[in-house]
Amino acid sequence: MTESLKQRLQAGMPTIGTFLKTPSPIVAEVLGLTGLDVLCLDAEHAPFDRGAIDLCVMACRAAGKPVLVRTPSPAAEHVLSALDIGATGVVVPHVTSADVARDLVRAAHYGPGGRGYAGSSRAARYTMRPMAEHIVGSAAETVVIAMIEDVEAVEDIEAIAAVEGIDALFVGRADLTVAFGERDPQSPVVVEAVERVCRAAQAAGRTVGMFVPRVEEVARWRPLGASLFLLDSDHGFLLKGAARLVADFRAAQGA
């Protein structure tokens, strides 16, 4: 039996994914053919509207590939939209406090004051999934990931990590670097902040996710509890692939 993404995160299994920056279902479809464990549509920093997210999620689902949506903000309507479209879960930026984390969990799940219900959504199989089945299934399947990328979040990290329903804490290290007034992600204050997030997550039994600029850094963070790594992007693949092709072409001519 293949584990769901939520089960992988809960078990701390090494999980590799990448960011999709191009709002194209074809690119999503191609990446769905790879051995990546998960894709993450970057609707915060890339030009994804609801229609583009819908098509890319559809392509990922057709390929049987778990797909996360990095929402533009913690707003409940962004969470609702991504999940109704059929995303496996959400990666939500700027979760700055335990209160924001609790609001996020409420917005991602059905219940009093929580996610609005629509049986006509893709997530509910366009009315083909009975309400009771969909509510239970959604609770078991939906992944909620809080991005930690602000000084305030680090200062409240123990309380954030303790919020029930948060499946993982994802370190936005570049944003943390800027938030701390630094220019180098290797700055001691930034590294200490990331380590504090890892300690808080381990104490609360939460998974840690992160982006690292070099895959070699994975070995540095795995012992501290990091298991979800969203590395590189489709843009990065294009740039590096083109650079490699040019280098190989010149080498073939003895240049």
Tell me what the structure shows:
Keywords: Lyase, Metal-binding. This is Aldolase. Pfam families: HpcH_HpaI (PF03328). This protein has 255 residues and is an alpha/beta fold. It has one domain (5-252): TIM Barrel. 45% of the residues lie in helices and 16% in strands. The protein contains 12 helices and 8 strands. The protein has helices at 5-11, 25-31, 50-62, 76-85, 98-108, 131-141, 151-155, 157-161, 173-179, 188-204, 218-221, 234-252; strands at 15-20, 38-42, 67-70, 89-92, 143-148, 168-171, 207-210, 226-233. The chain has an 8-stranded parallel barrel with strand order 1-2-3-4-5-6-7-8, surrounded by 7 helices. Strand 3 (67-70), helix 4 (76-85) and strand 4 form a beta-alpha-beta unit. The longest helix has 19 residues, at 234-252. The radius of gyration is 19 Å and the shape is globular.
Terminus-to-terminus distance: 51 Å
Order of helices and strands: HEHEHEHEHHEHHEHHEHEH
Instruction: State the total count of DSSP E strands.
Output: 8
Overall pLDDT: 96
Q: Which range does the strand content fall in?
A: 15-25%
Give the low-pLDDT segments: none
Q: What oligomeric state do these chains adopt?
A: single chain
Largest sheet, spatial ordering of strands: 1-2-3-4-5-6-7-8
CATH class: Alpha Beta
In CATH, what is the homologous superfamily?
Phosphoenolpyruvate-binding domains
How many domains? The number is 1
Family: Belongs to the HpcH/HpaI aldolase family.
GO molecular function, one term: metal ion binding
Domain HpcH/HpaI aldolase/citrate lyase: 16-227
Keywords: Lyase, Metal-binding
